[in-house]
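ugh ok fine here u go
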Amino acid sequence: MKRIEVVAGIICDGVPRAPDAKYFATQRGYGDFKDFWEFPGGKMEPGETPEQALVRELNEELAVDVSVGEFICTVEHDYPAFHLTMHCFFCSIDSGHLTLLEHEAAKWVDASEMQNLDWLPADVQVVSALLG
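structure:
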């Protein structure tokens, strides 16, 4: 089975995991999982660390410069066509304004709203880690 290694950035408004924290969720506008929600990020390139890939991907997708913070989890998930390994980190915005360059929608969600979104299967595990 094909293997893909990606990173995801959990951008938090407030203190991560605090009861009043809000998280930036993006909605896919393409592919088999169009309209599902995910945390932004993307594929790692050869020779990149997860942190380097995350800085690059969030700049490409959202036009922001970020600092990568605490590691949250690594998700292993089998999709029908490939196996996904996704490294997830909290991120904070250093500069720029969140601009959707690849997604069809985005919103800030708190813990209760997060549970009501249709997440990509791999991202469901990230939501559980955040709420756990």
